[in-house]
């Protein structure tokens, strides 16, 4: 992948994820009111789905040429497709990398300060950890999902409140919410320049806690008052950690207590909401992928006019059989791929279609196999050969520019000397 490809992916994924974040911010409250907090929390999975959709290869549009352009393609020239961003791309990528590293270091520092503030951890007979401090606790900490309780846990809360708090934290652990927080923290580091991700991270943590509250109340419907009293007793977290699910990590108390007044959604309404959310997620992810600009590739095999210099390049396979490798475009320097010995012995023929990024000096900047028949037989030998090829670069305003071209490479068996016309090799 070239720097231009990375820059283009960053732009496309930023646009897709930003549109999705705006959509989620608009839908989270109506969905929560209609179908419950768990459905609204599920909607946040749209954000990584949008980034993933932007990472899947874009639709490919094959452009055929005729006339003078076909003559030029047959002669080995290319259609200009300049790289995105020009000469500033390396500088933009350097700034992006520096910002991502700085954001990641900030997240790690916050996590380290939180762990250091816990002091010496003591484990009780139930496998729960008790810290020497109370700031930011209770919480589920780390990717292993350890429940850490404050030093005054037994004194501050009643038995009923302690049971509800532990139920809350165990739901976080069962749902692997810490892993979700880690993913959101990683996205915030990668897209540190986008303020929407900072807003999304805050709202994501709020909806996470509201969804957990809703699940606890659904399982303990007679404990709403005790649950609300436990919230009031809990101190505001002074040291939030990225890889932790805090019982009260800065989430508005009024919003959480207000939700306790509403009846929990029934199973049917929750199911309808989950189906609706799943449909929105699938449809939006597909739209994010389909909306990407199509990759336009010059098809050198369509409507091409034979050129007198475009001759096959012949490679000897050894033994009684002869193998030929035909390259459908003329290049300045063409080293023929080596016909694999096993394929030559079994008289296997095939074709490999290469996508080649050609630099402005005509060298191969990158190459990959678009498709091959049979798969995997001729791929590696073709890649090895293409790395040393040289092309006539595309010209734009009288200057050579980078571009991309498709090159079909056909592997065939030559007829043995003296074989009759129409015979088989």
Automatic annotation (TrEMBL):
Residues crossing the lipid bilayer are 6-27, 39-60, 91-110, 271-289
Per UniProt, subcellular location reads as: Membrane
TonB C-terminal domain boundaries = 324-420
Chief place of localization = membrane
Keyword Transmembrane included in the entry's annotation: yes
Q: Which InterPro entries match?
A: Beta-lactam_resp_regulator, Peptidase_M56, TonB/TolA_C, TonB_C
Kindly give the Gene3D superfamilies that the UniProt entry links to this protein.
3.30.1150.10
Q: How does it sit in the membrane?
A: Single-pass membrane protein
Against PANTHER family, the record matches this protein to: POSSIBLE SENSOR-TRANSDUCER PROTEIN BLAR, SLR0241 PROTEIN
Which named protein is this?
Answer: TonB family protein
Q: What organism is listed for this UniProt entry?
A: Luteimonas notoginsengisoli
């Amino acid at each position: 992948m070239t720097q231009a490809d990375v820059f283009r992916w960053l732009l496309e994924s930023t646009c897709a994820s930003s549109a999705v974040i705006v959509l989620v911010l608009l839908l989270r409250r109506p969905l929560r009111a209609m179908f419950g907090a768990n459905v609204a929390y599920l909607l946040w999975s749209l954000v990584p789905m949008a980034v993933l959709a932007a990472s899947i290869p874009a639709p490919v549009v094959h452009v055929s040429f005729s006339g003078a352009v076909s003559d030029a393609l047959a002669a080995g020239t290319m259609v200009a497709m300049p790289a995105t961003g020009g000469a500033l791309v390396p500088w933009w990528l350097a700034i992006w990398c520096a910002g991502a590293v700085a954001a990641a270091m900030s997240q790690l520092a916050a996590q380290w300060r939180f762990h250091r503030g816990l002091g010496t951890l003591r484990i009780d007979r139930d496998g729960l950890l008790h810290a020497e401090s109370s700031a930011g606790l209770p919480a589920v900490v780390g990717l292993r999902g350890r429940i850490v309780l404050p030093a005054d846990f037994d004194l501050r809360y009643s038995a009923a409140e302690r049971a509800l708090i532990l139920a809350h934290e165990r739901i976080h652990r069962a749902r692997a919410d810490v892993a979700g927080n880690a993913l959101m923290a990683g996205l915030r580091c990668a897209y540190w320049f986008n303020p929407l991700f900072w807003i999304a991270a805050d709202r994501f943590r709020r909806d996470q806690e509201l969804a957990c509250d809703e699940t606890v109340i659904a399982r303990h419907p007679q404990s709403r008052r005790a649950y609300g009293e436990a919230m009031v007793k809990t101190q505001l977290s002074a040291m939030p950690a990225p890889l932790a699910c805090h019982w009260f990590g800065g989430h508005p108390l009024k919003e959480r207590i207000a939700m306790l007044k509403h009846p929990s959604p029934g199973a049917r309404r929750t199911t309808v909401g989950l189906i609706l959310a799943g449909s929105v997620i699938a449809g939006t992810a597909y739209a994010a992928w389909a909306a990407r600009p199509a990759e336009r590739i010059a098809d050198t095999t369509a409507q091409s006019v034979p050129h007198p210099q475009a001759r096959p390049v012949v490679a000897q396979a050894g033994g009684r059989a002869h193998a030929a490798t035909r390259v459908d475009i003329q290049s300045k320097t063409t080293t023929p791929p080596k016909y694999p010995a096993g394929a030559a012995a079994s008289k296997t023929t095939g074709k490999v279609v290469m996508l080649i990024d050609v630099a402005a000096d005509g060298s191969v900047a990158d190459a990959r196999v678009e498709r091959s028949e049979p798969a995997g037989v001729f791929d590696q030998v073709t890649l090895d050969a293409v790395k040393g090829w040289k092309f006539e670069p595309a010209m734009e305003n009288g200057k050579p520019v980078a571009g991309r071209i498709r090159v079909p490479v056909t592997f065939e068996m030559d007829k043995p000397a003296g074989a009759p016309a129409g015979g088989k090799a």
